[in-house]
Amino acid sequence: MGEDVRCRIARRAAQEVSDGMVVNLGIGIPTLVPDYIKADVHVLIHAENGILGSGPTPAPGKEDPYLCNAGGYPISLAKGGAYCDSATAFAMIRTGRIDMTILGALEVSERGDLANWIVPGRRVPGIGGAMELAQKARQVVVLMNHLNHAGESKLKSQCTLPLTAPACVNLIITDMAVFRVGAEGLILCEIMAPYTAEQVIHHTDARVSLAEQMITIP
Amino acid sequence: MSGLNKVGTLVAALSHIQDGSTLMYGGFGGVGTPPTIVKGILEKGIRDLILIGNDTGFPDIGIGKLVTAGRAKKVIASHIGSNPNAGFMMTAGTLEVEFYPQGTLAEKIRAGGVGLGGILVDVGLGTIVAEGKRQYTLAGASYIVEPALTADIAIVHAKRADHLGNLVYDKSGRNFNPLVAMAGIFTIAEADEIVAPGELDPELIVTPGIFVDMVIQSEGVPWKWVWEKTSAAE
Predict the structure, then answer these.
(1) Alpha carbon A82 to chain centroid, angstroms
(2) Whole-number Å distance between alpha carbons of A91 and B141
(3) Which residues of A touch B101 (CB under 8 A)?
């Protein structure tokens, strides 16, 4: 995925973030989201390695090895930020205090099932904090490529990979489109130019209905 | 004072760790894993360890050094993705890996450290994590029964320790350390700085010294952090 596409997805995801939220960001494109949050929207970024209120990447030379995000890369602390142990970091998640998690996925089903931790026999990075975040964050936003490396839809009528959590995803933002997860399958609500609704549906292996108001993202 | 003084040497610390020991470690991606103890285990040749901790570090960072050197026979963790060697060994059948959701792992360790038998947790219901596990219904809600975890030896990394074993951690280096410190039958703390009793602000002590059996002086981190390598490559 090109840098411009990654930024476009991150910019769209940032629109979902509203003032006062506590947000957890997965690794990859989600870490770009804070760059696109408007200046008058104040949020706390939660990191599962024990930071509530993490700040931007420090300038080169200003990194602190003991102030890293869950991916192991240096960050800073926002004003009012706090450190805690891992049990406390997950208490915040398990009790529903995280308003939104923005994370990547291998597959998402039309009922919002999420698969993002294991490809049996091929790749087993492990669960990390994904199960707690997917199951317990109030809103789950998935950012991902629409198609996998084989050109197959990552949006499925049913996930083929083991689940991270069932029926947990609220919104999916891909390089082609934006979907909400509805009671009757996915609702296509926005299309990333230059794709058309027909192309998006053609590349989506799930039940899709069209939103009443369709927006094209230039 | 002398009977309460827990400051020891690396050699003395390593004498408590045997081939086949169950070794619990603090750290997250290597941040907060005690580097001097890991180096000591590596150099002493201790093997067949059962490792319990959040992740397997990076190939040459944190507990990852022991995994890469083939010193572990089993790992209980939430994530191994940042250390491809762990994945290769798992696929080859030379390393057994038991996965838990990260928060569940933290609470299993915490339960061990606070003297509880286990926890009831609903994270992972409806996934393969729940398969084959005992479930329990309480007040109308379903939970997975997860037994507590303890270990023969727990190793933690603190920013400051006093002679009594009271510990203060360093920012995100805290992570699993306070939980791990409590769950060890014998807990060894490596500290960047060791001070006399009374030097640490009692309001700010995170791990009270009663949970710590030995304190040793850290020799610092012998590895390059993953982001240092990245910037060097750029």
Answers:
(1) 23
(2) 18
(3) 127, 129-132
How large is the average pLDDT for residues A23-36?
A: 93
- Give contacts of B 21-40 with A, CB under 8 A: 28-32
* Bridge partners (DSSP) listed for residue B4: none
Distance from CA of A130 to the nearest CA of B (A): 7
CB interface of B with A, residues 58-77, below 8 Å? 58, 77
Question: How long is chain B?
Answer: 234
**Which chain B residues contact residue A31 at CB under 8 A?**
none
Q: What is the CATH class of A3-46+97-217?
A: alpha beta
The residue extents of the domains of chain A are: 3-46+97-217
> What is the C-alpha to C-alpha distance for residues B21 and B204, in angstroms, rounded to an integer?
32
pLDDT interval class at A1 (50, 70, 90):
confident
Show the beta-strand stretches assigned E in chain B.
22-25, 49-52, 72-77, 96-99, 118-121, 135-138, 141-147, 151-162, 167-168, 184-195, 214-217
β-pairing, A139-144 vs A100-103, is parallel
pLDDT tens digits along B52-95: 999 999 999 999 999 999 999 999 999 999 999 999 999 999 99
CB A69 within 8 A of CB A47: yes
Chain A residue nearest residue B128, CA to CA: A162
Residues of chain B with C-beta less than 8 angstroms from the C-beta of A128: 55, 78-79, 81, 102
Chain A residue with minimum CA distance to B79: A126
Q: Which amino acid is at A110?
A: E
Please answer yes or no on whether A60 and B231 come within 8 Å at the CB atom.
Answer: yes
pTM over 0.95: yes
Of A63, A72, A162, the CB nearest to B128: A162
B79 at the A interface (CB within 8 A)? yes
Active site amino acids of A: 48
Cβ contact (<8 Å) for B101 and A67? no
**For residue B226, what is the enclosing H or E element?**
helix B226-233
The second-level CATH assignment, the architecture, of B2-117+149-233 is 3-Layer(aba) Sandwich (3.40)
Sign of CA pseudo-dihedral B80, B183, B131, A127: negative
- Name chain A contacts of B226, Cβ cutoff 8 Å: 72-73
Domain edges within chain B: 2-117+149-233
Cβ-proximal residues to B55 (8 Å cutoff; 6+ apart), any chain: A126, A128, B27, B28, B29, B63, B77, B78, B79, B80, B81, B82, B83
Gap between the Cα atoms of B162 and A83, Å rounded: 21
Nearest C-alpha neighbor of B78 from the set B104, B109, B100:
B100
Kindly state the tokens that stand for B113: 């450290």
